[in-house]
Amino acid sequence: MPNVRQTREALGTRLRELRLDIGLNGKQFAESLHWLATKVSKIEHGKQTPTEDDIRAWAAATGTEDQVPSLLAQLRSLELAYAEWRRHLRSGTTARQQQIAAIEAETTVTRVFEPSTVPGLLQTSEYARSIITQSIRVHQIPDDLDAGVAARMARQDVLYQAGKGFHFILTEAVLRNRLCPVDALKGQIERLMVTTSLANVVLGVVPFTARLPKAPVHGFFLYDDRIVQVETFAAHLTLTQQEEIELYGKIFNLMHGAAVYGREAVALMTQVLHDLSAAEQ
Length: 281
Description:
By secondary structure, this protein is of the alpha/beta class. 56% of the residues lie in helices and 12% in strands.
């Protein structure tokens, strides 16, 4: 997973290559900008984050003004890339749900890949209660469980808005992971089966028997072709670089090829329900 240091180093490497292309060493380049040599070194080695003015000055000095928009996008990606969950959730889980809802409201096509957990837009209230309880306990944030569940349920109104499309791909593990009581899990699977009948929702499941085209390391959310969001145990990543968006779009398409849909997906979910019931006996 990318983090602040790696993202900053990537930007520094790109800037260093621009400097090397004009044949100046670090000291000479710093003098041309009336900077301390240490500033150039720190930026290039990912020890210091450049400002937007620094980026523009760097591009002007290397004759690469045409790259300013891309460089600024990379800088903003760095600024957004890593937000600690404790800070993100410092006021509880409700605010986070509202932030996601705002993004979903301005998105036309939402694509979601999940290898372990039912996406929030498809969760039942019982399932959501178990997931949000885990977040509150693990991250030791304010307990706003009821409000957080209500906010997550309110987000689901977007599924029924005209002009919006949704494509979800889940692994079979999502259906079997015991993240809530068995009865709640069975109710959640039944909800997913109903979801397959919605005209603007496409739901695929990657069976355990499928040959995986890429290891399902983590889930992600693609909002149109402008934002990718990734959740880790420690952080929430917002990726905005075009290369990153294209990469996640490619991975989504690969998972699409491995998934089953329609009757096959419903049959798989029915089998999981049968297995859960058999395990209770």
